[in-house]
Request: fold
Amino acid sequence: AQSVSQHNHHVILSEAASLELGCNYSYGGTVNLFWYVQYPGQHLQLLLKYFSGDPLVKGIKGFEAEFIKSKFSFNLRKPSVQWSDTAEYFCAVNRHSSASKIIFGSGTRLSIRP
Amino acid sequence: SAVISQKPSRDICQRGTSLTIQCQVDSQVTMMFWYRQQPGQSLTLIATANQGSEATYESGFVIDKFPISRPNLTFSTLTVSNMSPEDSSIYLCSVEEPTTRAPPGELFFGEGSRLTVL
Reply:
């Protein structure tokens, strides 16, 4: 079945630690890739996106993600996390052949210890 | 970016009843999407609503259970019919960026409607 996998359900880090959240998808062909974030009590918002070109994309708040086509991966990274990064992070994929249908991963809850 | 308002923000309902969730967008959009986020799970697309046509439902979702209206380019409703505790979830309305030519998939979300069915 076509899917988006986020292997880490809950990640706990201390402030200033480095972060990497995994995301793998199972679709072939051309895809658009996204990371969305949901801060406590807030709505989902776009963190960063990849459509084409440089596979290393930079988003808001110091986040970046690398698209590795051969591994069907789009991992999210941040070199030094802050307490304010505590949130739920969702990887999402849209296939070019599926109009606007977007599929979400199961999400990773990130908790940062101050 | 689009601003999306949903009502109600939360509700507690009795088994067997129905609830209609409203979604209002501050700009005209072609496509509106309804998602469900069950406790501890990811977002699942229920249906896509285009103005002037029947909604397109995803596998596992049917119109009788989740009727959708889309009377104009800024408004949509989702009804959860004959509710059971399994319908307890957050229901989210979302739209694509209305003012750019962004490729499909870049979505804006409302804050969601948290529904608890007893």
Remarks:
- The interface with chain B takes residues 32, 34, 42-46, 49, 51, 90, 92-94, 96, 98-107 of chain A (CB under 8 Å).
